[in-house]
Every structure is written in structure tokens, then in C-alpha cells.
Amino acid sequence: MKIKYFEDTDTALLEFSEHSVFETKEINQNIFLDLDEAGNLIGMTIEHAMLQANINEVSFQQISRQVA
User: Fold this and answer.
1) Of the candidates 21, 31, 61, 65, which lies 20 to 30 Å from 3 by C-alpha distance?
2) In-domain check, residue 10
3) Helical H runs in 1-68?
């Protein structure tokens, strides 16, 4: 996964896969989902990222499966 932030346009691009984009769906006027030919999510674009998401702080936390 890659996260790119374009400061000049305040746009965040989250790339989940390197597959080719087949279709882009608009969720709202600021959020777009890129799908591959099978309908799998491969990317997300967030316009006005500073307002839409806390782009100043990005963290990753992997939660291990709990064994009962």
C-alpha cells in the first residue's frame, strides 16, 4: 500500500494495488474509488484531504488475531 499526498492540490491518493484502473466511482464530490475489472478496490482519491481526513498524521497498526 502506498499513500501519496499532493500538497499543491491538497489531494491524497491511497494505492492498494498496482492493477490497472477499470472504473472510478464517485462516492461524493471529494472521494473517488478506483476499481479493477473484477470490481476490487485498487485505489482511493481524497480531494481537499486536509478537511476530509487527518492527513497530517498517518499511522499503521496491525492487530494480531486473539486466540481463545
Assistant:
1) 65
2) yes
3) 49-52
The CA angle 24-19-64, to the nearest 5 degrees, is 100
Q: Could you tell me which residues come within 8 angstroms of residue 11 by beta carbon, excluding any fewer than 6 positions away?
A: 5, 45, 46, 47, 49
End-to-end alpha-carbon separation of the chain, Å? 31
18 located within any domain: yes
Domain total for the chain? 1
Domain range for 43 is 2-52
In the predicted structure, residue 21 carries a pLDDT above the cut 80: yes
- Is 61 part of any domain? no
Which pTM value belongs to this model?
A: 0.82
Residues 45/39, Cβ–Cβ less than 8 Å: no
